[in-house]
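Input/output pair, single chain:
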Amino acid sequence: MKRYFSHYTIIYPALFLKNHITELDEENRLICYYPYENEIRNTEFYSGLLIFTPTEEASDFSFIHDCWSKKEIDRLEAFIKMNEAKQSFDLSGNRLKIWHIP
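Output:
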């Protein structure tokens, strides 16, 4: 099992988290995510933004990069939450790639 913490996390395409830990199994499949409350052993800490995407998903993050570089976190959060309302998704069976934007 692997644990990741970042100030901001996107589980693409429709979940935006602030100060959460994301757990993946040995095959990079999502186990769970939960709010950061205290430091947990074997957690990798990343400053900035982590993006988890299915490995077969095309990866065009130009909008995300644009929002992030302009420090428009509220705009990015609103966009992701809009996707959340449109889509139901289950990533538990998919292997995920991890992207870090400092």
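The helical segments are 62-69, 73-86. The first helix runs from residue 62 to 69.
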